[in-house]
Every structure is written in C-alpha cells, then in structure tokens.
C-alpha cells in the first residue's frame, strides 16, 4: 500500500517537472488516435489525464515531439492503471 502511495507521489511530482516544457505545446490541437495510426514519437513531453475514479476509462492526451522536432498531440482513451 505504501509503495502505491509513493509511486503516485512520484508520478504527480514528475508531471510538474514537465509543465514548463509542455506549455510550449499548448497551442497544438490534439488529434484523436485511431487504431493503426502511425505515430512518430521521438520524445514524450507530457501525458495529461482527466480526473477519474478507480477502474474508469480515462480520456488522456499525450503531447510529444516527432523526429522532425515538431510538437504534436494525440488524444485517446485508456483504462485506469490501478484497476484490480
């Protein structure tokens, strides 16, 4: 139980560390991910999840830099990672 709390604390702290870099991509319109979409991800800048309850489907947006150096964003839905 303590390890889960520590992991969550570390994840939340690391999100703040990337906030300045992620703000550079705020003007980028997110593309909705579709199965089989070819993504050129050289560096992940940020991953933002909507507030959710345990075991919910979570609307998520990933901002990244491609191999050409352009900042892009993709939105997708994922399962909460703490679902047991």
Quickly list its features.
DUF2790; DUF2790 domain-containing protein; 84 residues; signal
Would you kindly provide a written description of the structure presented here, covering whatever features stand out?
This protein has 84 residues and is of the alpha+beta class. It has 2 helices and 4 strands; from the N terminus they run H-H-E-E-E-E. It has helices spanning 2-17, 19-22, and strands at residues 31-32, 43-49, 57-65, 71-79. It has a 4-stranded mixed β-sheet with strand order 1-4-3-2. The model is unreliable at 1-25 (pLDDT under 50).
Assign an overall shape. Answer: elongated
- What's the gyration radius in Å? 14 Å
Ends apart, CA distance between termini: 13 Å
Q: Give the proportion of residues in helices.
A: 10-25%
List low-pLDDT spans: 1-25
Strand proportion: 25-35%
Overall number of strands: 4
One letter per element, helices H and strands E, the order comes to: HHEEEE
Q: Give a short account of the largest sheet.
A: 4 strands, mixed
Strand order across the biggest sheet? 1-4-3-2
pLDDT average, as an integer?
A: 75
Given helix and strand content, the structural type is alpha+beta
- Total helical elements: 2
What's the layout of helices and strands?
Layout: H1 2-17, H2 19-22, E1 31-32, E2 43-49, E3 57-65, E4 71-79
Parallel strand pairs: 1-4
Antiparallel strand pairs: 2-3, 3-4
Keywords: Signal
Signal peptide: 1-19
Protein name: DUF2790 domain-containing protein
Summarize the structure.
With 84 residues, the protein is of the alpha+beta class. The chain contains two helices and four strands; from the N terminus they run ααββββ.
């Amino acid at each position: 139980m303590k390890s889960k709390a520590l992991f969550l604390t570390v994840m939340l702290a690391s999100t703040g560390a990337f906030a300045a870099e992620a703000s550079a991509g705020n003007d980028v319109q997110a593309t909705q991910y579709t199965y089989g979409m070819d993504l050129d991800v050289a560096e992940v800048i940020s991953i933002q999840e909507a507030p959710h309850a345990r075991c919910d489907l979570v609307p998520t947006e990933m901002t990244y830099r491609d191999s050409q150096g352009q900042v892009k964003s993709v939105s997708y839905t994922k399962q909460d990672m703490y679902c047991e």
